[in-house]
Amino acid sequence: MDRIALADFLRRRREALRPGDVGMHEGARRRAQGLRREEVAQLTGMSVDYYTRLEQRRGPQPSEQMLAALARALRLTADERDYLFRTAGHSAPDRHSALPHVAPALLRVLDRLDDTPALVLSNLGETLVANRMAQALLGDPSERTGLARSDVYRWFTDPAARSVYPEEDHVRHARAQVAGLRAAYGAMGAGSRAGELVRALQAESPEFAELWERHEVAVRFEDHKTLVHPELGPIELDCQALFTEDQSQALLVLTAPPRTDGWHKLQLLSVIGAQRFEAAAEQR
Questions:
Q1: CB of 234 within 8 A of CB of 166?
Q2: Are 114 and 69 in a shared domain?
Q3: Distance between CA atoms of 259 and 261, rounded to whole angstroms?
Q4: What is the model's pTM?
Q5: Pick from 58, 87, 116: which residue ends a domain?
Q6: Distance from CA of residue 141 to its chain's centroid?
Q7: Per-block average pLDDT, block size 10, for the chain (284 residues)?
Q8: What is the dihedral of CA 199, 202, 243, 26, to 10 degrees?
Q9: Which CDD domains does the record cross-reference, listed alphabetically (predicted)?
């Protein structure tokens, strides 16, 4: 671990960003050049003291999970992320590792979306990052670990995962989940995490095994969908997807036409989400 290089790199990248670059408010009477240390700590979920020690060349070796959070908070490119890992004494993760790197271009768009649900998904159906509205609608993705991070895996192994869609849409959605995984499997290979998912689901879900044998391949999201919220009930939403060039990640934005029932429910969802985040902050 090169503490000097790591500290200098973190400081330079922090100073190169403004709050607006990461979806934060600028605030009045701002003297700090770039982001403040406490703002980086807030974005990564680490303590201010921990991050400060890293910049002061006296911190412990960060874990791979912590480095992935720093790369996301500082909006690093894939090459910069690899440099961060190596400087901290870790091998650079491959581009299909268990710690997916969120494309900075998608993050820049997500940062500007606060009044409607938006999230970034990997090609394995993992929610890599979600705004507060998406978390209020779909739950907190940080609570999921292992294979259960994948929507595809949970769809075929956890009945509760299907409650977000009306029952009449389950068959169509199951086929779409498998077709998307088939596309990822073709791109990543049998020895990849996509292959691991396929093997696990073939062993655990006869329904998945039957659909997998159809060899349906598709990478798309429905333009219009109905999602079921436990408190607000069905919400009809339009879905727009923005893909990275290699289609390994997608930014999903869920909206509703003004003054429709779905639009009014999103307004209520914003209030519910804000209340939950305030309650969680008080508990911390």
A1: yes
A2: no
A3: 7
A4: 0.70
A5: 87
A6: 7
A7: 88 85 71 81 88 88 88 85 89 62 86 91 91 90 86 95 94 94 90 93 96 89 88 94 86 94 93 60 48
A8: -80
A9: HTH_XRE
